Amino acid sequence: MVETNWHVVNNGLDFLESAVELLQDGGEREGKYAALHLSASIETLLKVRLAREHWTLVVSDPREARRAKYEAGDFKSVSIDQALDRLVNIANVTISDDDLKRIKSLNRTRNQVAHFALIGGNPLATRATVARAMEALLRFIEKELAPGAPDEEREIIDAAYNHVMEQIRRIEVMLRERMNSVKPEIAQADMPVVKCPGCMQDAYLFADGASGRCLCCTYSNSGSVAADDYATYVLKENEYRTVKHGGEWVVSHCHICGDRALVDGIITNAQVEATQGCFSCGYFGDLDALERCSRCGEWTAAEQDSVAVCPSCFEYITSAD
Questions:
Q1: Which of 83, 147, 174, 231 has the fewest CB atoms within 10 Å around its CB?
Q2: Which DSSP string corresponds to 96-135?
Q3: Environment class of residue 260 by beta-carbon count within 10 Å: exposed (0-12), middle (13-18) or buried (19+)?
Q4: In the prediction, which pLDDT does 105 show?
Q5: 246 in a domain, yes or no?
């Protein structure tokens, strides 16, 4: 195992500490820099762990790896996506699907910032993306980076980890204050409120005929993306594993608007389970209000004393006749 220069570890941790400090400030400018700094921290620390397996894994194309150039820093290194792939598939490092999505979501935000595509973006939404990815990085540090680190590395890793955790506790206080400020709006809402897939607070408000938004972090996305985020982050479901084992994915096409944004098994802030809601058009109903179409398996309005057939299949049947 090659020992990584402790200065590289220190740089990665410095970027992490900078990101959490910027996240505390809460402005639009600070949020964008937090995304950039956290992305740099993740990239650096992933490479540190990768180098422990073998230094050539840090080189984008291992066939072109030369030790002298590696030690001089004169080489093209792996991207975040490449590093994650090699850690999971070569180094057998365990990173959950949730954490992979959190890191990749931050990487998209980072690219938007770097290419000036985040101008006018909502600061709270950016902070939520950064906060989720930071949780993923902290789990990686605790479970994969700190264990097995040389003594000199372990000392600075532990010190930085403890400092960041202190800062995060202060951010949690700010989040509670934000939730307290929106409680009256949540209480007066005439549409269902569910846990937000962005900040994980009970503050995502469904909208009538449109996509909803979070009253806390202002998370708002297209119906299909929000539905998948809710299934992944709130319900802790995994589409690949569900389908692989013969189950039905909780996200399907909505019988009202047709978008793939209807989630089965939503839990409201009143803890009412077994309900279905569409993150595109705002449909919300009890589980017994819908049933699967007997032909295609999509949800459709439940029919008493008859076999359920969705409008698309009914149109196909009648046109065929």
A1: 147
A2: -HHHHHHHHHHHHHHHHHHTT--TT--HHHHHHHHHHHHH
A3: middle
A4: 87
A5: yes
Structural domain contains residue 301: yes
- Among 153, 181, 209, give the residue marking a domain's end: 181
Q: Which residue has the tokens 């030690």?
A: 71
In this structure, is residue 276 part of a structural domain? Answer: yes
Q: What angle do CA 233, 181, 206 make, to 5 degrees?
A: 45
Write the burial class of residue 206 (CB in 10 Å: 0-12 exposed, 13-18 middle, 19+ buried).
buried
Which residue stretches of the chain have pLDDT < 70?
1-6, 26, 115-124, 169, 172-174, 269-274, 286-289, 294-295, 297, 299, 301-317, 320-321
Q: CA 133, CA 121: separation in Å to the nearest integer? A: 18
Q: Which residues of 262-289 are buried (b: 16+ CB within 10 A; e: fewer)?
A: bbbbbbbbeeeeebbbbbbbbbbbeeee
Confidence (pTM): 0.60
Domain count for the chain, please give it: 2
157 and 45 share a domain? yes
Q: Give dist(CA 279, CA 271) in Å, integer.
A: 18
Amino acid identity at 196: C
The pLDDT tens digits for 164-197 are: 877 776 776 667 777 887 888 898 888 889 999 8
Q: What is the pLDDT of residue 1?
A: 39
